[in-house]
Amino acid sequence: MNINKFVRGLSSILPTRMKALIRVLLPVRVKRFISYLVMRSVDTNSIVTMDDGRKFKVIKDGLFMRVLYEGEYEPLLSSIAKFLIKNGDNVVDIGANFGWYTTLFASLSSSGKVYSYEPSPYASAILRDNVELNDMRGGVKIREVGVGSQSSIELIDTSNSGLAHIVHESNNTTTQIKVVSLDDDLSDLVGKIAYIKIDIEGFEFFALQGAINILTSTDQPIIQIEVNDDALERSGSSRNQLVKFLSKLGYRFYEAKSEGKSLVHTDAKYCSDMFCVGNGQYSGRIDALI
């Protein structure tokens, strides 16, 4: 039996909530074995098209398997973003990987601009391919740099494109990258950024430290952020440090309800993904989701 056809066919008949439950309940070793089997049979010369018309180059990557076989990636978070981003917005995607969110944001704000940060040479090349594939070059500015608290040169481990992260020792899987602060790189956009999505394997706190001017502007951007306690600890920060930092800037925290496309207030102690809302013109957008 062709494993590609089998997995895709099974995925097409299962409800989204059931697929999410299966991902939670399956042992890690089983998920890794299934991922290994399907990646071996992937045709990397093909293109996959989503229901919303976006196209992606097929790659042998664990994160991309969900896009290939389920036709979606982080559907709940993506659905919330669709309500929060408006046409004409300037949006920042930090940790863009293969471009799921970058292309989503560009489709939502076709007359705005998406600033997409991806330091991994491998992932950024695929990101460029996908942006071009969707004819979004005019609306997306790709920056092959990391984002941190200040401008510097760092080492990044690129052994896993979806989990690339800054390290302190060189080996055969590391490459040197430039790191910039958002305040320096986007200084002309202070007060003009509506939305920031950030997922950079534990270095979120440092990246947001380097955006203090942007985050304290009269119109504070909404922040979509992944919170991974193990990754934060590995990078030298913590959930408590991150939450305190954003709270002092006036941000409130919300998480998506799995039962529907809505948000509920959270103290941010346990949620893995959250939406941070400050003050100014963009804050009112969550009203319809609460």
The Cα radius of gyration reads 19 Å
Q: Could you name the CATH topology of the largest domain?
A: Rossmann fold
Number of helices: 12
Number of domains: 2
Spell the H/E element sequence.
HHHEEHHEHEHEEEEEHEHHEHHEEE
| Count of β-strands | 14
Structural class: alpha/beta
Beta-strand portion reads: 15-25%
CATH-level-2 architecture of the largest domain? 3-Layer(aba) Sandwich
Question: Can you identify the CATH superfamily of the largest domain?
Answer: Vaccinia Virus protein VP39
How far apart lie the N and C ends? 46 Å
Tell me, what is the CATH class of the largest domain? Alpha Beta
In which order are the strands of the major sheet placed? Answer: 5-4-3-10-11-14-12-13
Average residue pLDDT: 85
- Portion in helices: 25-40%
Instruction: List low-pLDDT spans.
Output: none
Describe the sheet with the most strands.
8 strands, mixed
Q: Tell me the overall shape.
A: globular
Features:
290 residues, alpha/beta, four-stranded mixed β-sheet, 12 helices
Task: Give a description of the structure.
- Strands 5-4-3-10-11-14-12-13 form an 8-stranded mixed beta sheet, with helices on one face. Strands 6-9-7-8 form a 4-stranded mixed beta sheet. The chain has a two-stranded antiparallel ribbon with strand order 1-2.
- It is 37% helix and 21% strand.
- The protein is of the alpha/beta class and 290 residues long.
- The model has no long low-confidence stretch (mean pLDDT 85).
- β3 (90-94), α6 and β4 (113-117) form a beta-alpha-beta unit.
- The termini are far apart.
- The radius of gyration is 19 Å and the shape is globular.
- It folds into 2 domains: 3-70, no CATH class; 75-152 and 181-289, Vaccinia Virus protein VP39 (Rossmann fold, 3-Layer(aba) Sandwich).
